[in-house]
Amino acid sequence: MKSVTDSFVSLGHWPSAGGLGFNTDILATNPINLSVVLGVLIYFGKGVLNDLLDNRKQRILSTIRNSEELRKGAIEQLEKARARLRKVETEANEYRVNGYSEIEREKENLINATSDSLERLENYKNETLLFEQQRAINQVRQRVFQQALQGALGTLNSCLNSELHFRTISANIGILGALEE
User: Fold this and answer.
1) Distance between CA 141 and CA 45 in Å, rounded?
2) How far is the C-alpha of 140 from the C-alpha of 27, rounded, in Å?
3) Residue 8 near residue 23, CB atoms below 8 Å
4) Domain segments of the chain as ranges
5) What is the DSSP letter of 127?
6) pLDDT value, residue 117
7) pTM of the model
């Protein structure tokens, strides 16, 4: 094996060059050139590469922090939304229960009002029947009284003569006069 310097600078390979020259053999010089270029890139590019990697790292960390903040904000909003949902569900249940209670109360009030109306109508009907019954009884009494009066007048007129009639009227006038005094 040849040493690295032997492959780069070969004194005996180019006799016409006078002992010092460049080796143009690509296979021999390529690893050396690559190592020199890589060495220069690493030495000078290390700072740039570190800066690029640091910037990338900062952006990634910033993105992670922003994502975490957004996640926390989303979780808080979700919790608030869940709390509002629970509150709305509770209120809806209360409205439903109150609504059912209100419906039952209105139903009872309507039943009571209808019952009261029916009772009043029944009382009015009974009063009307009683009134009509009393009126019919009074009409019958009046007819009976009129017929009795007519019969009595007819009997009196046929039995009384004018003198008896005159005495009866005078006696009644006397009784009325005594009552007035």
Assistant:
1) 139
2) 153
3) yes
4) 33-148
5) H
6) 92
7) 0.38
